[in-house]
Amino acid sequence: MPNRTHRRSISAPIWILLPLVLVAGLYYWHGARTGAPGSGLFTAPDTESARFARCSGPVRKTCVVDGDTFWYRGTKIRIADINTPETSKPECSYEARLGAQATERLIALLNEGPFSLQPGGDGRDQDRYGRALRIVTREGRSLGTTLVDEGLAEQWKGRRGTWC
Asked: What is the DSSP letter of 133?
């Protein structure tokens, strides 16, 4: 009889493990792209919260100025990833209406629950007016993106756009 050596095939365990590794990788990759809650991207819990209203009067501690600017615990914050219509000096009536809607929506979003404040992303901590540049997120999703999706803001392009 010929001398036959039995070799064990290691391909069976690889074929069992490979689909599991691929599914886990896709799960993590999708979460890293979307930041969706429970999607594989580990984010710190949202710990900031307060009750917001529209700013009025000279003393401003925690209130909303307009759709992309608010005061939080005495710090004036400019939402770094968006631009919203002006409310103080709008160029036309459409901008004034849309700016008022963006302001009210930001108040509602901030009051919906805990949020996080992330660095602005371009390396600057403050803008030329001394406002802290932050991205506001809840469960890993930018509240600015919510305003953009609802047509109340545009992505920040490095300069103000026109709404008229």
From this structure: E
